[in-house]
Amino acid sequence: MTIKGALFDFSGTLFRVEPTDAWLRAVLDASGTAVPEEDLQRYARRLEEAGALPGGAPPRVVPPHLAGVWESRDRTAEDHRAAYTGLARQVPLPRPELYDALYDRHMRPAAWRPYPDAAEVLGELRRRGVRIAVVSNIGWDLRPVFRAHGLDGFVDAYVLSYEHGAQKPDPRLFRVACEALGVAPADAVMVGDDRRADAGAARLGCRVRLVDHLPVERRPDGLRPVLELAGGPAAP
């Protein structure tokens, strides 16, 4: 059956956040904080192990005092910031204001790159009459990222967890997205990189297609198979 709606996750699906060392370097440079390259790389490794970069590697261990806010991090903007700055504070950095600066950096469009086939696939879906929603577990407004990278014009609706007080795999988010697009769940596909969170759409009757959460250089065409559900072959 040809789909009428396509729901896409954000991080690891349509966009990928910058590497941890680039994230840290941008903040250090902006704050005028000079550290030797060896120290910068050491800080970056520890921040990555801590899972401090939203959209980056998950934490190896969530400290007990952050367990509750980590579990609910995508339901409110406050919990999202508290969770990730809390993880970052497990790593001693040269200046205390760097923790909030790191969190602020990850929300900027410059911190994100679209996957190479994102514009092509979204544009082709629109050409074929498929309506598109972005459904993301997130604690901040990602719309400026889409506008800055020229993808906003392809998106009919944004359903962001912190704006609804619910997070995937809660079926409420997928239901809101389908209703916003005016399509039945059976006529929609959810495309994401998280087997637990994104596959929650199947509970409503949506089809689910998973992609690999890889650096953009290593996943040039992971989205193209979605076009096979939209009334035609995947783009070459």
UniProtKB/TrEMBL annotation:
One Pfam match: Hydrolase
Keyword Hydrolase assigned: yes
InterPro entries linked: HAD-like_sf (IPR036412), HAD-SF_hydro_IA (IPR006439), HAD_sf (IPR023214)
Single GO MF annotation: hydrolase activity
Signal peptide start and end residues: none
Keywords on record: Hydrolase
SUPFAM superfamilies in UniProt: HAD-like
Entries under NCBIfam families matching the protein: HAD-SF-IA-v1, HAD-SF-IA-v3
PANTHER family, sorted: HALOACID DEHALOGENASE-LIKE HYDROLASE (HAD) SUPERFAMILY PROTEIN (PTHR46649:SF4), PTHR46649
UniProt name for this protein: Hydrolase
Source organism: Streptomyces sparsogenes DSM 40356
Lineage: Bacteria, Bacillati, Actinomycetota, Actinomycetes, Kitasatosporales
